[in-house]
Structure formats: structure tokens, C-alpha cells
Amino acid sequence: MSITHKFKTNKLIDVRIGKYDWKVEARVLNLWRGFSRTGEAFKGFNLLLLDSKRARMHAFVPGMIADEYEQKIQVGKIYYIKNFTVKKYRTEDKFRCVRNENQIILNDDTILEPLEENEASIERCWFDLYELGDLRPLSKQSTYLTDVIGVIEEHDPIGKIRNVNGVIQSQIKFKITDGSKSVQVTFWDEFDEYFTEMLKKETVYPVILIIGSARVTLWREEVILKNVGATTFYINCNHRSVVEIRKMIAQNMFSKNKLANGGKRCATIYMVKDIKNLGDDFIESHILCQVKLTKFQQLKTWCHPICTSCYERVHVLNNEETCSFCKRVVPYADKKFEVYITANDETGSMVLILEDREVRTVGYNY
């Protein structure tokens, strides 16, 4: 009998301070170590965990038990983890890979046992993706790292530079784009060498890249993504956002958006009355307006279920949520926001449709 049948487990979203006998099932997404100022790796190491509810949490394995537990852990595998403490982050704790106030600390009493794939339904990867156009404010903080996605636009070979300490370092520079915005990426040393080797093996082009836990920096007013210890990358992985971008490329939407906007925002601010008079030439164009959001439209629901494979809408058929595109039942469909809202300025009013990312952004700001 498997462990999961013996015990009821907790979800990572419920894990908090004040209890010790937690029991969770989680996939290890990443394992990494921090480094001292002299470049020496710490003995203790970090883990990024993901559970069946798509909640992620950071865990730390102290140096005194690091050797024992590192032999047991393999990145990508699922584990049953029991008996650990929970600790709040300190204010000075920087470069956190998840936006969570708590972290897990393993100890001598922690039980860690591997599970088979059929014993827990946990996705192989999950991200909190940010739009490339939203990265600039994140360069002004060092508390959190950021997940991004984009198509590799430019790819220079590995280069060598001498840093301020006179040490020779290798680096690779390239750009990723989401069709309307391009951002510079710089990977360093062993990380860039590993990335380059994996890129050489890829046969599907254009390459869609997800960077997990990247550091957002600013150099001469240009946003640059860099790798730190917690950073990972996924090339053409099986993720909903990769599927969506691949669809855009196949429908010639991606290059069209890029050529039409050149990665830059429109400089003209339109009034509502002018927007209503725009012709067909402005269909799918990006424009700017300054309006006040005044009223939500009264709809039955503000979100709709989508398929976890093809990300099309699902519908109820014979009392089951079914994807008409995949022709399959979707028992745990994802949810995407779609909100209709009235907006106005001094020249008139109009209805805006806020989709998933916009709704989450507005909700976060308010």
C-alpha cells in the first residue's frame, strides 16, 4: 500500500507557522545552492516544490543534513514529505523564487519518501509568468525573482569578458520577444554553457523559452534578465503559454504583431470618441487611452473554464465539462478571467474587455 493511501496530506497553500507534523506530496522542480561573497558554495541547499493544486513553495535543507537528503532527492520526482518546520522570511531575505511569506525547513526528523507518478497528480512544471512589458518596475526591487516567456529573437555565441575583479567569465546574450516587446537576456558561466548545449539539441524552431526565477535588472535604462542560483530554463516545454505562442506563430499573428508595433507603445493618447471612429486599419493595433473604470457589467460569471491541454473553452456536456476541440472530459479545468467593464472620459463611454492577465494586474494594484 502506498504512503498516499495511508495518510491524508496537506496542501502547500495551507502550510504555515505553528505546526510541525505537516504531510505534503510535492514535485521537486529545482535544487540549488547559494554562494558566499567569495564564491564558495554553501553546504545547505534549496528546493522549489509544486503540489497538485499548483501551489509552489521554497524549502531549505540545512548543511548538517544536506549530504543525507541530497542523495535521496532527484529534480523532477515526486516525494512524500512529513515532519518539517515552517519559518517566515526575514525582511533581508532577497531573490525569493515564490511570492510567499513562509518557507519550509527540513530537519533530522523529516521523512522524505519517493512516490510513483501514478500516486500523485502533479504537473511537471508551473510558473507565475509576467508580461515582458511589465518588467521595468520589478527591476527596482530585489526581494522576488520573476518567471517570463518569449521567443528567442537574437542569439549570439558565447563570449568571454574580464570582470571588475580581473576574472575571466563566459556569457551569452540574446533577446526574447512576446510579439510586442523584446527584452535582453544575459546568462553567465556554467549556466550559460549548459543552456547553449541544450539549445544545440533543440530541433523545433522558433524556440520558445521559459525562464524561471530570473533576476530583473536595469542597465542604461534597458531591462535585462540575468540568472542567479535559483534560475532555471525550459525550452519548448509542454506548458499552456508555449502552446498559445506556438498558435500565434502558426497563424502569422506573432510576426504581424511584432512588425506592426516594433516592440514600442503608441505615443498618441486617444479619447473615447476618437476610438469609436477608428477604421479597419486599427484592428488588432495597440493604442493608448486614459479612462476611468466606472462599472462592472453584470454577468453570470467573471471567468470561464478552459481545457488543460489545448486551452480552448470547455462546455458542459452530459453534466461533465468537456472540451469540444480535444473531444475529452476535463475533470479539473483551468479558469480564465474575462470581465466586461464600462470606462469613460470627458468625451464619452465604452465597454472594455479585460482578459485574464489584465484582471489579475488590476486586482493586484488595488
Give the key terms.
single chain; 37% strand; 16% helix; 7-stranded mixed sheet; RFA1B/D_OB_1st; 5-stranded mixed barrel; 366 residues; 7 helices; globular; NA-bd_OB-fold; alpha+beta; disordered N terminus
* Structure summary, number of beta strands: 23
Q: Beta fraction of the residues?
A: 35-45%
Low-pLDDT segments: 1-5, 256-267
Oligomer, anyone? single chain
Radius of gyration, Cα only, in angstroms?
Answer: 23 Å
Domain Replication protein A 70 kDa DNA-binding subunit B/D first OB fold: 11-113
Pfam family, one: DUF223
Protein name: Replication protein A 70 kDa DNA-binding subunit B/D first OB fold domain-containing protein
Organism: Heracleum sosnowskyi
Written description of the protein model:
By secondary structure, this protein is α+β, with helices and mostly antiparallel strands. It contains 7 helices and 23 strands. It has helices at residues 3-6, 63-70, 189-201, 240-250, 253-261, 272-276, 356-365; strands at residues 23-32, 45-50, 56-61, 78-82, 85-88, 102-105, 111-115, 146-155, 159-162, 168-177, 182-188, 208-219, 222-226, 232-235, 269-270, 288-289, 292-296, 303-306, 314-317, 320-323, 328-329, 334-345, 348-355. A 7-stranded mixed β-sheet has the order 5-6-3-2-1-4-7. Strands 8-10-11-13-12 form a 5-stranded mixed beta barrel. Strands 17, 18, 22 and 23 form a 4-stranded antiparallel β-sheet that branches. The chain is globular and about 70 Å long. The model is unreliable at 1-5 and 256-267 (pLDDT under 50).
